Amino acid sequence: MRGPRIIIHMDMDYFFAQCEEKENPAIKGKPVVICVYSGRSEDSGAVSTSNYEARKFGIKAGIPISMAKKLNPGAVFLPVNMELYRSVSLEIMGILRGYCDAIEQKSIDEAFCDISGQVTDFDEARMYGIMIKKEILEKVGLTCSIGVAPNKLVAKIASDFQKPDGLTLVKPDDVLDFLTPLKITDLLGVGKKTEQRLNEMNIRTIGDMSSLSMDAMIREFGKAKGEWLKLASQGIDDSPLEEHEGTGQIGRIATLKEDTDDLSIINEMINNLSEDVHRKLTERKMSFRSIAFVAIATDFKTRAKSHTLAVPVKDLDTIKNNAHELAKQFLAENPVRLRRIGVRVANLTEEKGQMTLGDF
Ligand code: DCP
Ligand code: MG
Ligand code: MG
Is 110 annotated as catalytic? Predict the structure, then answer.
């Protein structure tokens, strides 16, 4: 039985600045400004981001560094350290991947996750959002904001709604009430020009826009854009997640009927998960070299046990057999009852005349 479509949008709070606070806790509590120096003169360049303390002074992404220094000379000014942010981002995306059916990473600090296959309803989805936030905080030490909604359009707005450290759930029946008072520019895809046109028509909120007829919107903006705007103003969006090729891993996680440490029950679930993973692998014409068994115990902690093969392979039996073995080892080492389990393959390569197990 398949429940409703449920999409999560996760966006890290003041990401670059928060990474720096984590690296150097002494600066926490002070205004922190991350700068992209152009190198032309000492203070030339722009602000990349700032923490919330600095934002109180009006220091935000995009303003010149010189202006930020005028707004608060005592703030902590740091140069961007992309290496650090990339590695933190990788860790966060890895955690998210363990929770969802599909993931579309939108930028270094945000992603959409389809969790429809992981939960049965929106109340369970809220708990799921809490679990994700908790795991990111415990493992990476950073806060994020999450929106849970029936589609990408609404999830994106929801994640921004209670920043920082927010969790906003918008159930299907609440979508219209949620959107009505918001500014039209909150809709991803409404840019400056569209905003101007709509303002001239005296349309300022999403609610104002939804009261216009489809015909009027199409007359004003043309068929494609007019239709999209009208549907967006009603919170209607069925755009799929775009999983980028080469994300490097394919995983599937599911919740066990009840908490257990019984290997026969776990292996049965592993078989189903392996088949899903294998189907995706085949669709993408990929092979893998490493495989992991992912376990989420009753304490909600996610642990993984993985194994790397000598050569890339692509067959279902290798996935199943390795996952069974890893699960056995995992339970021998960790006397816990499991709540959810997953199978994940990584180190993906394009399938090109490589060996399969049958070739050995
Ligand atoms: N970024 C940048 N220049 C911009 C906008 C963003 O260099 N004009 C970088 C720095 C941010 C990161 O991208 O930390 C993520 O962008 P966000 O828009 O998500 O902003 P933050 O995460 O910094 O803050 P928020 O808490 O509002 O999400
Ligand atoms: Mg962010
Ligand atoms: Mg972002």
Answer: yes
